[in-house]
Design the sequence.
């Protein structure tokens, strides 16, 4: 579950960095 949480956080930050 921790791995899924980290991947979701990265995806959420992706649009903010773009």
Sequence:
């Amino acid at each position: 579950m921790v791995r899924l949480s980290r991947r979701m956080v990265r995806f959420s930050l992706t649009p903010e960095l773009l």
